[in-house]
Design a protein that fits this description.
Blueprint (H helix, E strand, L loop, with lengths): L2 H18 L6 E3 H7 L4 H13 L3 E4 L2 E4 L2 H11 L2 H4 E5 L5 H6 L6 E3 H9 L9 E4 L3 H7 L9 E4 L14 H9 L6 H12 L2
Helix pairs in contact: 1-3, 1-4, 2-3, 4-9, 7-9, 9-10
């Protein structure tokens, strides 16, 4: 995932978390974000250019805040290329829950599995599993390469994803689901939009 996407994820996660709890929107500084993600302030500045032009980010002096979360989320969704980050895929002749429960402990669930884990619910039945992990050797041992329609996908995680726990944060769930072709992704997207109060 690109650096600007990591920055957008952080701003959205913080902004929407506060919004859901009916608290004032957090105020960010480019310097603080640069320090948090070990990048230059010019990298942060460039990540804010398009969101600022489209009114998703409001800049006042040295500070900025999330003004329109939906706009920024949709910008990220259209810029995200989940397919490019997939580092392994295979066909597994097991039910989804069995695949999920057979995963190594260090993976992070994405997409449909992330939603179910995060919200303890699923708005539709699903038949594919997406996980984030750099350790594909262990996953390959448990789920070796097999011909057929792939239903297990391993995605390369960014260095900061683990900060969110065992599932991708809701904003990344949304962006990843936006990029998926499975028909039931729409049901998950609709459910997430309701939780975001868009």
């Amino acid at each position: 995932m690109k650096k600007n996407e990591i920055i957008w994820r952080y701003i959205l996660s913080e902004g929407l978390a506060k919004n859901l709890k009916a608290r004032p929107q957090p105020i960010f500084t480019q310097k603080d974000i640069a320090k948090k993600f070990n990048c230059s302030t010019s990298t942060v500045f460039n990540a804010l250019k398009i969101p600022r032009k489209m009114g998703a980010i409001e800049v006042t002096g040295r500070f900025f805040r999330l003004r329109d979360a939906e706009k920024l989320l949709l910008l990220w969704a259209t810029r995200r290329s989940l397919k490019k980050d997939i580092i392994y895929e295979t066909s597994v002749d097991l039910p989804v829950r069995s695949i999920e429960s057979s995963m190594p402990p260090d993976i992070i669930f994405g997409a449909f599995s992330a939603y179910r884990l995060f919200y303890d619910d699923a708005p539709a039945d699903y038949s594919t599993v997406y996980v984030y992990s750099k350790h594909i050797d262990e996953i390959k041992k448990r789920f070796p390469p097999k011909k057929g329609i792939s239903n297990l996908f391993v995605v390369n995680p960014d260095p900061f994803l683990a900060d969110f726990g065992k599932a991708t944060p809701p904003v990344q769930m949304y962006v990843d689901l936006w990029n998926l072709r499975e028909w039931y992704a729409k049901d998950f997207l609709r459910a997430l939009r309701e939780k975001f109060n868009f």
